[in-house]
């Protein structure tokens, strides 16, 4: 717990510092280094938060994971709204420029929002070169957006610091009033195991071998003597999230570019609502999934999500020239992709009885998918045109369903725990049908 809290404190504080520093970056290499630090901190937060929820609540973790990811989506939806008043409304291109029509049509929505001007001024034009930062107060106004986000994030590391003080993990507190005296610690270490009665404790306080600390999943003892299905479950579950989270990132990044291209040719302002609509329904889907996850098994939720994604992409592909179907399909994709990650995490940890490093592997697989599939879709979109965007979605959705079927197969092959391990189940659920495989 100590390592996890310190990792959360360091990472959340780093996020605020990064947002403060970003407006002062005048070189792309420096900006890339700062953004890499932000990505490292966000990845650490994602891994530690999911791991600790699974560790604490185990069989009941599905609901809490849905709550966690609801706030992730809510933050992704709220952040652009906070930054919007500080962004420039000026056109990114000269009004009399006709040589840059092709370049203009292929720019992504994020580039237009941030004002990244890749066009060059026409010879003899007295306009400012678009590649240079605007003069006056526009640059300062954009800086305010970053500083406001840093200020909004600041209470998070302060809250983690408060938890550290309550747990007596800060140096000043641990020296002044330790929780256990040395004699007490010695007594606990030498107490015979048969005298310890933990059957009446809640599940999160019962002793367990999994997730002793942040890096316990990397210890060889957790994998020693494990069957092949143990490793296959980790790989296939990570591949499912590789595809689904990769589709989430790729769709939100390129749906604007797809909408403004032929045959749809949606206006730039109307197309700009599509990413917001997508993230809005992701947030709504995660909110709806909180009560649903308390009644529906995670394996059923993942199946519903994957099938829904494949069907939605097929419908979008069939009606690729219909703008109404594009908006309805965007909302549908947001709903089906919203709860895939927390449901898959809860399902995989349930299979492995919370003794492996499934959380770390799944978070890593999802993060790699967001990076790789966005780059892959961008390259294909640039080379083959807008129609390839939906074709990629269908292919990735079918691959996600294939890996999900393989996960079910390896789950059936994986040996079940003996009855001697049943005390780790939550109290009052020893005879529940949920545990009858």
Fold and architecture overview:
Mean pLDDT is 75; it is low at 91-136, 178-190, 192-196, 201-215 and 418-437. This protein is 66% helix and 0% strand. With 437 residues, the protein is mainly alpha-helical. It has helices spanning 2-21, 28-57, 61-83, 101-106, 109-114, 138-153, 155-166, 171-176, 182-190, 228-260, 268-271, 273-293, 298-318, 323-338, 340-351, 358-384, 387-413. It is globular, with a radius of gyration of 25 Å. The relative contact order is 0.13. The protein contains 17 helices and no strands. Helix 1 packs antiparallel against helix 7.
Write a compact overview of the structure shown.
With 437 residues, this protein is an all-alpha fold. The protein is built from 17 helices and no strands. The radius of gyration is 25 Å and the shape is globular.
Q: Tags for this entry?
A:
single chain, Growth Hormone, Chain: A, 437 residues, 17 helices, disordered C terminus, mainly alpha, 0% strand
Query: CATH homologous superfamily of the domain at 2-86 and 223-417 - what is it?
Result: MFS general substrate transporter like domains
Helix content: 55-70%
Uncertain stretches of 5 or more adjacent residues: 91-136, 178-190, 192-196, 201-215, 418-437
Say what the CATH topology of the domain at 2-86 and 223-417 is. Growth Hormone, Chain: A
Largest sheet: none
Large-scale geometry: globular
Provide the succession of SSEs.
HHHHHHHHHHHHHHHHH
- Write the CATH architecture name of the domain at 2-86 and 223-417: Up-down Bundle
């Amino acid at each position: 717990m100590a390592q996890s809290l310190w990792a959360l404190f360091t990472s959340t504080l780093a996020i605020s510092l990064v947002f403060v520093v970003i407006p002062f970056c005048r070189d792309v290499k420096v900006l890339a280094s700062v953004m890499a630090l932000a990505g490292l901190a966000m990845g650490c937060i994602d891994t530690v938060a999911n791991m600790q929820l699974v560790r604490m609540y185990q069989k009941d973790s599905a609901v809490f994971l849905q709550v966690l990811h609801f706030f992730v989506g809510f933050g992704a939806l709220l952040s652009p709204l906070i930054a919007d008043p500080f962004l420039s409304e000026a056109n990114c291109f000269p009004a009399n420029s006709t040589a840059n029509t092709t370049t203009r049509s292929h720019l992504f929505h994020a580039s237009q929002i941030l004002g990244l001007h890749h066009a060059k001024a026409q010879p003899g034009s007295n306009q400012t070169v678009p590649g240079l930062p605007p003069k006056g107060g526009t640059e300062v106004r954009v800086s305010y957006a970053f500083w406001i986000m840093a200020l909004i994030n600041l209470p998070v590391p302060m809250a983690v610091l408060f938890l550290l003080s309550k747990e007596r993990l800060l140096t000043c507190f641990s020296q002044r009033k330790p929780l256990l005296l040395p004699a007490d610690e010695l007594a606990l270490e030498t107490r015979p195991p048969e005298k310890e009665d933990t059957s009446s404790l809640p599940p999160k306080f019962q002793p367990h071998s999994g997730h002793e600390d942040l890096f316990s999943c990397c210890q060889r003892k957790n994998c020693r003597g494990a069957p092949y299905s143990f490793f296959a479950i980790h790989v296939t579950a990570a591949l499912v999230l590789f595809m689904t989270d990769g589709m989430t990132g790729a769709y939100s990044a390129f749906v604007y570019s797809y909408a403004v291209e032929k045959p749809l040719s949606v206006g730039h302002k109307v197309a700009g609502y599509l990413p917001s609509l997508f993230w809005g329904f992701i947030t709504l889907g995660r909110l709806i999934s909180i009560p649903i996850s308390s009644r529906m098994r995670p394996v059923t939720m993942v199946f519903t999500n994957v099938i829904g994604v494949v069907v939605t992409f097929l419908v979008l592909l069939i009606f690729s020239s219909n703008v109404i179907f594009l908006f309805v399909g965007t909302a549908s994709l947001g709903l089906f992709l919203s709860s895939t990650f927390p449901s898959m995490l809860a399902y995989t940890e349930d299979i492995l009885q919370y003794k492996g490093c499934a959380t770390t592997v799944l978070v890593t697989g999802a993060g790699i998918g967001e990076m790789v599939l966005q780059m892959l879709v961008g390259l294909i979109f640039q080379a083959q045109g807008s129609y390839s965007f939906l074709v990629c979605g269908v292919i990735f959705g079918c691959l996600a369903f294939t890996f999900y079927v393989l996960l079910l197969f390896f789950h059936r092959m994986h040996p079940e725990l003996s009855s001697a391990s049943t005390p780790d189940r939550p109290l009052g659920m020893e005879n529940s049908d949920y545990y009858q495989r």
